[in-house]
Amino acid sequence: MSYQSVVKAAIHQQAPFNPNRFVKISDRKDQCDIPESAWKALLENAFLQTWKGILFDKGPTETILYPMLMYELQPKTIIEIGALSGGSAVWLADHLEMFQIAGCVYSIDIDLSLLDEKAKIDDRVHFLEGDCQQMEAIMPPKMLSELPHPWLIIEDAHADAVGVVDYFHHNGLQTGDYVIVEDTNQTMWEIEWEDWNDVELISQGQRKLGDLTSWLMRHANEYLIDTYYQDMYGYNGSKNWNSILKRV
């Protein structure tokens, strides 16, 4: 096959041309093409990653997939649950600016004391403190009703992930909005945290995929998996298995 043929084939496999791009959870399997042996190497130094000198705990595949999705979606509102040091929120805001998207980033954490000073002074990000298991107290329905669409919601807190998704489902998510539930990769919970003793965190992480799958089965006609991004690096080739979702 010639180089030109390869390029043409790649173009026609891109998102706008793929008629089978969006699928129901019932069409998916809980598996991944990236082998377990590769995940340890990919993730073991996650806490050494930085963005503008701020801790930036994102998987290597997400750092490519998210900007592509943002450029296509052109989100006016990004809501991140799980701020940590603020690196990913600043990274999201930088991409909105780079893509000239007039959007706003909200980043939520139960404890904002871990925020890096450089993140604190970034006026493009609204950091909100609160327990994501009580989302109504952090982002009340009236507040959400005033936020422009499209939305991109990224759940990265590992505490009641389905409760978070369900809250936004009942309070503002519209057709075309996206939800990403991070760290549903079953393999990573078997290897990435093997030296940790936070039993509750690990237990919540290991349940994420199963809990989300059960929720999606009840909302099969409302949320579809975007296989263009989900399977960019092989089937479920990211930290997020079957959890890059479009509201339809």
Summarize the structure.
39% of the residues lie in helices and 16% in strands. With 248 residues, it is of the alpha/beta class.
Notes on the protein architecture:
The chain has a domain at 24-81 and 134-247: 3-Layer(aba) Sandwich (Rossmann fold), CATH 3.40.50. It is built from 11 helices and 10 strands. The protein has an 8-stranded mixed β-sheet with strand order 1-9-10-8-7-4-5-6, with helices on both faces. It has a two-stranded antiparallel ribbon with strand order 2-3. The longest helix is centred in the C-terminal third of the chain and has 20 residues, at 199-218. It is an alpha/beta fold and 248 residues long.
Task: Output mean pLDDT.
Answer: 91
Give the termini distance in whole angstroms. 38 Å
Percent helix, as a range, is: 25-40%
- How much of the polypeptide forms β-strand, as a percent range? 15-25%
Key attributes of the depicted protein:
single chain, 248 residues, alpha/beta, Rossmann fold, two-stranded antiparallel ribbon, 39% helix, 16% strand, globular
Summarize the helices and strands and which ones pair or pack.
Blueprint: H1 3-13, E1 22-23, H2 36-43, E2 50-51, E3 54-55, H3 62-73, E4 77-81, H4 87-98, E5 104-109, H5 117-120, E6 125-129, H6 135-138, H7 141-145, E7 151-155, H8 161-170, E8 178-181, H9 186-191, H10 199-218, E9 223-226, H11 227-230, E10 244-247
